[in-house]
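TICKET #2291
ISSUE: user wants both folds in one file
ATTACHMENT 1:
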Amino acid sequence: MRNEYPRPDFVRERWKSLNGTWDFYEGLRARKLQIEVPFVPQSRLSGIGRNLTSDAILYERLFTVPKEWEGDRVLLHFGAVDYQCSVWVNGQCAGTHQGGQTPFTYDITDFLNGVEEHLRVSVVDYLTDEGIPRGKQFWKEKGQSIWHTQSSGIWQSVWIEPVDKAYIEWMHFTPDIDKGTVEITYQVSDGTPDTYQVELDIQFQSCKVHTETIEGKGRRGKILADVFGNHELCGTFYFSHRYWSPEHPYLFDVKVKLKNGENCFDSISTYFGMRKIHVRDGKVYLNNQPYYQKLLLDQGYWKDGLMTAPDQEEYAEDIRKAKEMGFNGCRKHEKVEDPIFLYQADKLGFLVWESMASFWSFSPQGGTAFAEEWSRVIQRDYNHPCIVLWNMMNESWGVPRIYDDGQQQHFARAMYHMARGLDASRLVIANDGWEMTENDICAFHTYEHGEQGDTAQQERFRTGVRSLEGLSGLVKRSLFAKGFSYEGQPVMLTGIGNAAMQAVHAENAAEEEPADRSHGDARQAFLEFYERLIGDIYDSELLCGFCYTQLTDIEQERNGLLDEMHQYKMDAAAIRRINEGKKAAGTFLNA
């Protein structure tokens, strides 16, 4: 059961999970079922495990508020509900929300009766609507090709927590490794007094880095903290160069209190990493050093939980296994991942290209919903040092005529500039795959590697990845949209691989051969294919990274390095040996 604290980058000590057994109804006249939240009804772990026939579903449950919270305000949090919902507490509407990827919160204090509370969540998820952000969820009854089972309703945690009428609503950390500082911006609630104090305590590995109390006024404020300049307790240069990276995921712990004199309204535990990402001269730089990204496509699906991991440890295990195979990050695909995954990526050291579910049929209404939800994604995940890039769209999904349609080009460019405007500390790709407009990285997809025995195509791939002209013959659509051209950005292949191989378990040695294998041992054939593919990419002076498709098998997709139970299909050390053919970066100052 998913009963961990759902928001590990913004922790309050007192809270209560509302995950667990709820009553569930499909349609207006449906019989009552029971469902295990936060698993969607289409998943086995929900206890229902079947496709829906109605867009409308309903959740209900009873809960109690702990007696010791008396006198506090009570906030009700939803991690994510797909797609539209209204929330009712004791028959009164607490609020409505649209968007299946991002969290929302209601103050339900005035609706509580102080005894047994009734919570009702009415959801509408348009099962066949291609105009809303739906990602890889298929609009037909059964998944096929690259499309997966639909996921409706609550799919991330639900919880309540007590706060004073004065509390911290959010806090963002923007590190500057060149100046050795972190800029902290925050917002407090409407119930906060006109004057208040924010008490800040930053520590690194239990050693004090920066303590400060500032006088606040108004709902929003800013603090500039010197992170690398305080050497009083730990010696000269102790904090300097403690940069966050996959090799050294250093994190600074933060405790924040909102006070008025001796009266403490709110207390938050959080963290940040000193990390810089930028591009220059056709290369990606991490912490001012050229850095070669070795990524995996990660769709975040589980056989029994679909979009929701069965347990929080599953997120950490995926990252550990990817790193064991020599990868240093992932490109999340068509899904805003659970904050628990991002927390584990922060702790373990794993780069993340954040993604969001695409809409399919372009319209101003669909574009508006997509843009609004992306802005909430950036707000939610701003603090995670693991996120180095906002990956707005994939392979022209949602903008199918972007090559020569001015409106769709403007939309892609608007998404790029929106993300850049909301967050200047990360890179942005408007459209990953092809038909580039404005991007910080030119990210192309090609699976034209050449099957085993097709030496002519293998040679075309080998030579093609060394120039943009060569890539134009490998990528199935135009590299750039009409009117746009290469402007010196770093170039990566962010869609490669896609070789299918059946998992082999100890109790069953039978295995299915890779897609490009005609004879010999399946594992050896795959390793030969992988070594040839990665070797060709490493030999290209044009390319500065890759993303291999993909981490795990998903339903009918059998192209993962892990199977659908997220277990290795082959020796991780063999993949790692190939991946280590090129170093990610030069010598780190903090190595």
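ATTACHMENT 2:
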Amino acid sequence: MRLTPAMQALRRVSVLAGALLLAGCGPSVPGGSSLSASEFPSTCLGPLLRNESLYGKAEVEPSIAVDPADPTHLITVWQQDRYSRGGSAGVLTGISFDSGNTWASTSAAFSHCTGGNLSNGGDYERASDPWITIAPDGTAHQAALAFDVSLGGGHRAVLASRSTDRGRTWSAPQTLQGDTDPSFALDKGSITADPQIASNVYAVWDRLTVQTVANSPLAHGPTWFARSTNAGVSWEPARSIYDPGADSQTIGNVVAVLPDGTLLNAMLVLTNLSQNTTAAIKVLRSTDHGVTWPDPPVMVSDVQNVGVFDLKSRKGVRTGGALPSIAVDASTGKVYVAWEDSRFAGVRNGIAVSTSTDGGLNWSAPIQANRVPTTTAFTPVISAGGGQLSVAHYDFRADNPSDGSQLLASSWLVTSANDGATWQETALAGPFNLYTAAFAQGYFLGDYQGLSWDGTAFVSFFAASTSGSLSDPSTLLFRRVAPGASPVHALLDAIRPDRLLGIFRHPTQVGVRRAPARTAR
């Protein structure tokens, strides 16, 4: 199918790192501005690009993991202080030992503002795309994209760090892949601990070529893969495992592990990028723990996507788009993938879910998960466990199209015990005004959000622009929802780094500090 310009914008987002790096012309770039005070000292902040803004107090794009050995132990990561043209000042980490009732804050040294420097491998101005996972023995692993915008911008890497003390402290970053040539761009990494083999950890990302030439039909964007077989102490050399060819790329790669040990890499595959782009969700399978990845990948579904655009402000909303979210129910072996898709209404995006019952070899026709099909729904994340399936997402059901003073979004969780034949919906937060969120190629809460299964409930970790002020663009909210819970608003715990940052630089002293409860409004 042919994609709209809005869908083609996803590809532009995917090459954002390369584009903004090329825009940098030195250690100081005029025309930028700080729209709110950073949570970090000014001494650690790098330069602003031309016409760029720094959104201090903006917490976006969170990820969450549950400790398989102790479901009360949670670890989260997110971007802190977002730049409008890409990345954040630093990636922060939250840890809880009581199912999210209280939290402490720490960080890995992925950029200057979280302690990165030349000697420890974190000598980067910005960090983005944080991802967290926990192995069966409790070892935690996180990954992020790190990069510079100064001096031509040819300095970037996919970094990984591990923690053997339940997230309190983190190892010096290891570079899974690094580039100094601005014709390459790394993007959208993720990291997955093998739920059966504690020593195995897998990381995937895409690496774009020919980025110094706009819309080059010669550009490639293959999936790259790295593996650790010693719990992240060291990593095997990164390698390309799937290349869709010239004028094509993958993006949004995420590895999931089946109960029999098979690895599935879910990805969005974009083809014919320089002209009439087409898109599809596919999975690549490995039956030997990542040693080989036989081609071709399995088709999950074609993608139809009209993007998300606010007619009132005539500006875009940057969402997860067609980036896939994948989940495996270890109790049944079923696999689920969710993404944004406009096939259900044609004129607006909804949430599509496809299911595989045979290890990812065959997939069901997509079904619609969002419960109000008359409004746009966006940025889904999927999780599964104990025979239950759940999808968190945002939508605009509370917005008034005639009220130009605000764009009201809400956060929702839908849960199903029958693979989506019926759903129960729970309100997570909102409505809140997206006009006060960071603007990063659109009003922005993240390309993804966090959702996981802790054995008896789903734990949701997401960004929301609840303050109503540009001086505090977005905060992070946590919610634990058991299947069958009352579908009403409830109190949420707000993880606010401005209350916790005083301890993150001294991880050996981290204690559990209570974050005040916040009503979802």
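RESOLUTION: both attachments delivered.
EXTRA DETAIL ON ATTACHMENT 2: Residues 5-14 form the longest helix (10 residues).
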